[in-house]
Amino acid sequence: MKEPLFGKTLTALQEIVLAEGLPRYSAGQIAQWLYQKKVRTIDEMTNLSKTNREKLKKKYSTGLHEALSMQESADGTKKYLFPVASGHFIETAYIPEKNRHTLCISTQVGCKMGCLFCMTGKQGFHGQLSTGEILNQVVSVPENEQLTNIVYMGMGEPLDNPEAVLKSIDILTAPWGFAFSPRRITVSTIGILPAMKDFLEKSQAHLAVSLHSPFDEERAYLMPMQKKYPISRVIDFVKKYDWHGQRRISFEYILFKGLNDTPAHVKELARLLNGLKCRINLIRYHAIPGVSLHSPSVHEVEQFSERLKAKGLISTIRRSRGQDIAAACGLLSTKERERKG
Questions:
Q1: CB 53 within 8 A of CB 43
Q2: How does pLDDT run across 22-45, given as a tens digit for each residue?
Q3: CA atoms of 4 and 323, how far apart (whole Å)
Q4: Assuming Cys at both sites, which of 125, 172, 204, 208 could form a disulfide with 182, CB separation 3.0 to 4.6 Å?
């Protein structure tokens, strides 16, 4: 199988062209074709000589591929299903709003974290996505020219695949890459501390921490990795970081009716997050098969949000999108795996 050029950093492309006997500057030309002009074949790189294109084609391809299928919701959300090299499938969600066009991308095939409420976790873990497979989602949706925001909140735990994720952010934000503003990129994590440190030091993208409960035992019930990375340690770590300029930290909080939506949770969240400039994004639970958790009503979510605001916490309610097309992560790829048998 030919090695993909797409997903290579400029340094890696320089090493390739020198090894193939091409001029060093041709690495920049290749990067421009891949990330700015978004060509899909080496033959389209017309400022490389035909001889040099033939040299590259012997060992390399762009490595780009189209989505296998797409489903569109009544609200305009689109869910793309991509095949990956391991023979499995990943999901990518395009979420259009009035002045915002967000792409939610995946970083792993399945997931190791085993969160109770997540369909991707039910699949188990089947492999890491390469940098190219992560970025292929960005260029291979038809809406790629409209994108204003990219969120690493699809299948998998991004900071459990830190090398590929950081390289993908480098390519997205570099002037020789997509030249995308890091302030329009958010990476979500359950709180993997060693990788969080690297992420904060090596990128300028925003951080979103999956919280879901401020109580240790309850969070461990929902998210087993709480036992390895307790939320108190995660909060202590982010409180020590200098959240300078426009870089933001937010906390994702899925509300489960009768479980994590009480006044006691509001009080503990206020204590836990005291002194940290942050935002809590409230999310209504999307039901998945075999899990006896339930979503609160819209009114109950609004009440919880008002209680948080009364404690001085900034709270927003994330509007549910794509429920008619199983837009919650993992549902579509699970169906495709079952269909393929």
A1: yes
A2: 999 999 999 999 999 999 999 999
A3: 35
A4: 204
- Residue for token digits 């440190």? 197
| CA–CA distances in Å: residue 255 to residues 132, 194, 290, 304, 328 | 34, 28, 18, 9, 15
- Which CATH topology does 69-340 take? TIM Barrel (3.20.20)
Question: Looking at residue 21, what DSSP letter applies?
Answer: T
Condensed to tens digits (0 to 9), the pLDDT of residues 288-298 reads 888 999 999 99
Architecture in CATH for domain 3-61: Orthogonal Bundle (1.10)
User: What is this structure's pTM?
Assistant: 0.94
Which residues are catalytically annotated? 91, 329
Within 10 angstroms of residue 262's Cβ, the number of other Cβ atoms is: 12
- Mapped onto helix, strand or coil, the DSSP state of residue 32 is helix
- What is the per-residue pLDDT across 216-239, written as a single tens digit (0 to 9) for each? 999 999 999 999 999 999 999 999
- The CA radius of gyration of the chain, in Å to the nearest whole number, is 21
- Domain ranges (residues) in the chain: 3-61, 69-340
